[in-house]
Prior knowledge:
By secondary structure, the protein is of the alpha+beta class. The chain folds into 2 domains: 61-239, Alpha-Beta Complex (Penicillin-binding protein 2a (Domain 2)); 244-287 and 304-569, 3-Layer(aba) Sandwich (Beta-lactamase), CATH 3.40.710. It has 20 helices and 21 strands. Strands 2, 3, 4, 5 and 8 form a 5-stranded mixed β-sheet that branches. A hairpin with a 2-residue loop joins strand 19 and strand 20. The longest helix is centred in the first third of the chain and has 43 residues, at 2-44. The protein is elongated, with a radius of gyration of 38 Å. 40% of the residues are buried.
Amino acid sequence: MNIKFFNFSLTESADYRERHWILQGILALIFIALAARAFYLHIIDQEFLRKQGDARMVRTETINAHRGMIMDRNGIPLAVSTPVTSVWINPKEVYELAHPDPKAKKPKPPVYLDYNAIASAIGLEPNELKRKVEANPKKEFMYLKRHLAPDVAKVVLDRDFPAVYGTNEYRRYYPQGEATAHVIGFTDLDDKGKEGVELAFEKELAGVSGLQQVIKDRKGRKVKDITQLSPAKAGQDIYLSFDARVQYIAHRELARAVQEHEADAAYLVSIDVKTGEVLAIVNQPAYNPNNRSKLVPAQLRNRAITDMFEPGSTMKVFTVIAALESGKYTTDSLFNTNPGRYRVYNKTITDHHNYGVINLHTLITKSSNIASAQIAESLPKETLPMLHRRFGFGQVTESGFPGESKGLLQPPKSWGPVEIATMSYGYGVTVTALQLARAYAALANHGVSHPISLKRISQQNAPSTQLVTAKIADTLFPMMESVISSEGTAIKASVPGYRVAGKTGTAHKAKGGGYAKNEYMSLFAGFAPVADPRVAMVVIMDGAKKGGYYGGAVSAPVFSRVMAETLRLMNIPLDKPLEEPAKPKVMTATPVQTTLAERV
C-alpha cells in the first residue's frame, strides 16, 4: 500500500507542476496583455485616457456676457450690470449622500444636509428649503438664492455645505431709481429686458455668452481655467436722447404736484423741437426698479405712451390751423358766440363765459368751444379728422416703446355734425401724451415734424416732414403766447426770462360709457422760447381733487418749473427781460368779459 501511495504522489506532483506552469503562462500572458494595453494607451492612443480624465475633472461652463450700459445723452449711467453670485444646490447629490449604495464594496456612511445651517446662512425658511429639495431627488440643479453680493456668497460657499455651489452672473442696477423707472424699465433674473428701453433695445443690449473649459474638483469648485472655446461678447452700450437732469427735475415736480392736488396719476413728456429727441418721460405713480418686492402692477404703466385720453382744448390750435388752411378764415375773421351757448343738432355747446363776437386770436386766448365748433361746422367733415391724422393722432409714433397706444380717431362713418363739432375742442378723439407732445413740437418747429427718437441723435440734419406751412404755424405763435398772460388761461405757465406759448385743456374723464361728472383730465401743452423754440412739453394731471382741476391751475405750474430748469440746463438764451412779464396785446373785435378763471 505504501508503494501505491508513493506512486500516486509522484504522479500528482507532476500534474501539479504542469498546472503550475500553465498558470504561470496564463499570468504572463495577462501581464503582457496589460503591459501592451498600457503601452498602447500611454504611447499610441493617449487621447482615450485624456478623455477619461477630462470626463471626471474637466467641465464646460458658460461665460456670462456683460449686458450693455444705458446712458443718458450726456453719458450719465442709467443702467449698469454688476457682478453677483447665485447659490444653487444639487438635490440628486443630496439624496445620494443620504442614501449610499449598500452593495458598494466599501459602503459609505450617510451624510445628511444641515438645512437649518444653510437656510440661516442664505436667509431662507428651513422647512420650506427641505421640502423643495427632498421633493426633487432626481433634479440636479435648483437655485437657493439668486444675485447675492459676491462677498456674501463667498461666506456661504466657504462653509463647504455638501451639494451647494455658486455660479457667477450679472445683475442690473439703476442709479437714477424712480426718476427713470418708466423710461429704462428693468430686466428679469436672467438679465433679459422686460420693460421700457431694456425691452425695446434687447437685441443691442444683450451680449452673447461664451464657453470655456475648466478643471473642477469633486465639489464643483473651479481649480483651473484650461481654454476658452468661444469668447463672450458684451452687449452694446446705448446713449439715449433723455437728459437725466431734466428727467429728475420732472419726476420731482410731478410727484410734488400729485401730492399737492391729490391726483390719481400724472405724466409729462418733453421733446427737443429741433431733432425729435425725447428729453424726458415721467409718470406718477412710479416705482423703484432696484427693489420690486412690493411692486403693484399699476405702477408699471408708462401712462405717457399707453394711456389714451381726450385732450380737450389743447386741440383747438389744430382747429385754427384747419381754418387758416381752408382759406375761408384769417386772423381777423369774426365769430359770434352770443349768448354763450350754441346748438348743433341735439348737442348744446357752451363757453365758460359769453365772449360775444371774437376773432381767432381770442378763440385761443379765451378757449372758446363755440367758435371752434363754428369753424368745424363750416368746413368739409373730413377736414379736421384728416388734419389730426396728418399730425400723428390715431397712429403710433414708432418710438419703439413697448406697449405704445395709437389713440383713436373715429372712422369716417362716425363723422357726423355733432362728432365733428366736439372734435374741434378735443372730445371724440383720444391721444397719448407722447402723440400730443410730438404734434406741439412740430408746431413749434414752424410746422416741421421729426421722427420721435429715444436715442441721442448725432447728425445735425434729422429726417423731417413739413406738416403745415411755416406761415400758418408761425401765425399761431402770438395766439398761443397770449394764453400765458393775464388775459389768458395759463398765466402760471410763464417762465422768467422766456416767452412761452401754449394751450390749456380740461376734459371730463370718460367712464362707464359716458363722462364722470366730477373727474377731470387737466392738461397744459406748450413750447419755449417763442423767439426760437427748442423744447415742447406736455403735462397731464389725472383726477386732481384739491386746489382746482383746470389745466391752468394744476398742470401749468408744473410746466413752468420744469421748463425753466430745462432751458437753463440746455443753455438756451433768454428771449425777454427777466423783469418784464410777457403781456401780449389781445386783439378782439368787440369788448368781451375778461374775468379769468383758470380753466379750459
